């Protein structure tokens, strides 16, 4: 059996070729874009967390109890009783939410939203309910 170089002499089109300048530039560009996207996503996540933390502080005085979530089953369903007698349920785990005139109605609306892919962190009813 011969050397690899013998094979590539017989079949030069099969020989590994170094990357062209265009291919190297494209690889560098792609890696730079991935790096910038990672930085942007990290900044967005940090900003979103800061906004959610501020929202949680604003909601804290209205927290009435914590119960089991109808969607994820975790004991992370915060129940808020707002000044205008509205009840609001928000799961801290999966994000599902609902509101109603009483706890039962709010829980029913929350359970009805299963599968709707809603998340209170993307748009809470809290600010709308306290107006």
Structure report:
- The protein is α+β, with helices and mostly antiparallel strands and 131 residues long.
- Helices cover 46% and strands 15% of the residues.
- The chain has a 4-stranded antiparallel sheet, with helices on one face.
- A hairpin with a 5-residue loop joins strand 2 (77-81) and strand 3.
- The longest helix is centred in the N-terminal third of the chain and has 39 residues, at 21-59.
- The protein is elongated.
- The N and C termini lie far apart (84 Å).
- The model has no long low-confidence stretch (mean pLDDT 85).
Topology (elements, then pairings):
Elements: H1 4-10, H2 21-59, E1 63-67, E2 77-81, E3 87-91, E4 97-100, H3 103-112, H4 126-129
Antiparallel strand pairs: 1-2, 2-3, 3-4
Relative strand content: 5-15%
Low-pLDDT stretches are none
Q: Percent of residues in helical segments?
A: 40-55%
Tally of DSSP β-strands: 4
Q: What is the string of helix and strand elements?
A: HHEEEEHH
Radius of gyration, in Å, reads 27 Å
From the N-terminal CA to the C-terminal CA, the straight-line distance is: 84 Å
**Count of runs of 4 or more consecutive helical residues:** 4
Largest sheet: 4 strands, antiparallel
Quaternary structure classification:
single chain
Q: What general outline do the C-alpha atoms trace?
A: elongated
Mean residue pLDDT: 85
The structural class is: alpha+beta
Strand order of the largest sheet: 1-2-3-4
Overview features:
elongated; alpha+beta; single chain; 131 residues; 4 helices
Brief summary:
The chain has 131 residues and is α+β, with helices and mostly antiparallel strands. It has helices at residues 4-10, 21-59, 103-112, 126-129; strands spanning 63-67, 77-81, 87-91, 97-100. 14% of the residues are buried.
């Amino acid at each position: 059996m011969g050397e690899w170089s013998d094979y590539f002499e017989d079949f030069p089109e099969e020989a590994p070729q170094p990357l062209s300048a265009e291919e190297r530039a494209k690889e560098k560009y792609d890696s730079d874009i991935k790096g910038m996207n990672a930085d942007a996503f990290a900044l967005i996540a940090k900003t979103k967390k800061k906004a959610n933390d501020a929202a949680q502080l604003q909601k804290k005085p209205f927290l009435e109890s914590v119960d089991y979530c109808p969607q994820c089953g975790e004991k992370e369903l915060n129940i808020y009783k707002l000044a205008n007698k509205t009840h609001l349920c928000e799961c801290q785990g999966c994000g599902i939410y609902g509101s109603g005139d009483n706890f039962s109605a709010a829980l029913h609306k929350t359970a009805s939203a299963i599968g709707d892919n809603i998340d209170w962190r993307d748009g809470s009813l809290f600010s709308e309910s306290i107006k």
